[in-house]
Design a protein that fits this description.
CATH topology of chain A: SH3 type barrels
Structural class of chain A: mainly beta
Strand content of chain A: 35-45%
Strand content of chain B: 25-35%
Order of helices and strands of chain B: EEEHEHHHEEEEHEEEEH
Distance between the termini of chain B: 27 Å
Number of strands of chain A: 5
Strand order of the largest sheet of chain B: 1-2-11-10-7-12
Helix content of chain B: 25-40%
Oligomer: heterodimer
Number of helices of chain A: 1
Largest interface: A-B, 18 and 18 residues
Mean pLDDT of chain A: 88
Radius of gyration of chain A: 16 Å
CATH class of chain A: Mainly Beta
Low-confidence stretches of chain B: 125-137
Largest sheet of chain A: 5 strands, antiparallel
Largest sheet of chain B: 6 strands, antiparallel, barrel
Mean pLDDT of chain B: 85
Number of strands of chain B: 12
Chain lengths: 117, 292
Amino acid sequence: MSVAPLVRAVEVENLRERAPHLEPGDTVRVHAKVVEGSRERIQVFEGIIIRLRGEGVNRSFTVRRIAHNVGVERSFLVHSPRIDKVEVVRHNQVRRKNLYYMRGLRGKAARLKERRD
Amino acid sequence: MLSGLLGRKVGMTQVFGPNGAAIPVTVIEAGPCVVTQVRTMAKDGYEAAQIGFGEKKVARETRPMLGHLGHTLPVTQRQRDQQQREGAKARQEARRKAAEKAETTESAGAETAADEAETADAKDKSRQGSRRRRGASQAMGPFQLLREVKLVGGDQPEVGAVVKVDMFSEGEQVDLIGTSKGKGFAGVMKRHGFHGGPRTHGQSDRARRPGSIGPGTTPGRVYKGTRMAGRMGNERVTVKALEIVQADPERNLLVIKGSVPGPNGGIVLIRKSADQLALAARGAAAAAQQRA
């Protein structure tokens, strides 16, 4: 559904000026701000983007990683001020928009080929 | 001061709060509204202001409403016909007289001169009717909706005064009144939140049914008010105490935390929180009592 111009006008003020260019399959390092008590520190979450959805201020992505042999997925809003920055470590070759099939794979099978372009 | 404003729901989105949390918000194009009538204690027994919002074509508005808004009424077809008949009659009369005169005085030019004079006169009359009354400017043009709002604080607004978003401030609590989306004929689960019947253990045909609707032989009837399936939605809904996240008088914008009844494009009434006003009034009364 198209977004009304007035709604867009409100959204624009909340957009990040330099949004990172992300694609499904990218290996990324997300620097997320975490508040612990009164202290704020930055936590890095590294993994593969298995989903990108939404538009405008609502755009979000889900990162999957295997931590201590357990699959962990975290979703982030692209424009959230709680994200310090997103580093794209490497572009991988994928043929789908949503990489849900990664959930059923582990170990060597869960590797992705780096994109050559 | 007025306690409310009319606006149009534009749509929903989200903004980021001071701590970075995403806040779901509704964007409302509120006002500008025009005060169309003032209710006074002396005349009406209560104090309020009637405000209008949205545009409407003059041709689409009813004549009683145009009168209420101070317009001069446009000429009706019937009035136009009447004028035409009278004009025709007058011209005929004039021609007859001119002919009589011509017979007696033998001057030829009189006929056309009289004719022209009459037509000009008739045209002038019909043009007069469609003109608006002086002082009733474009600002009092017919509105899509008129609503009354209570007055708060002593001062009274004047008819024709324009109210805008600047009556609200960020962080203030407001009530939103709108007409909910119509859901049509809805079952008892959707309409009243019933749990429906069991879906397993050999059940069939009763997953969304209401179950029993009352006792048996005594009383031998279904109690009035028993909740059943029926028309749902398309009714007045009030949502209380929503927070204003952003108020922008320049763009006539209100950004309100949470959802608002009705479809995008629907008209809503934004009112200063009734609970907050009552609380403030009680506080003021208590303070006055203490002073006395």
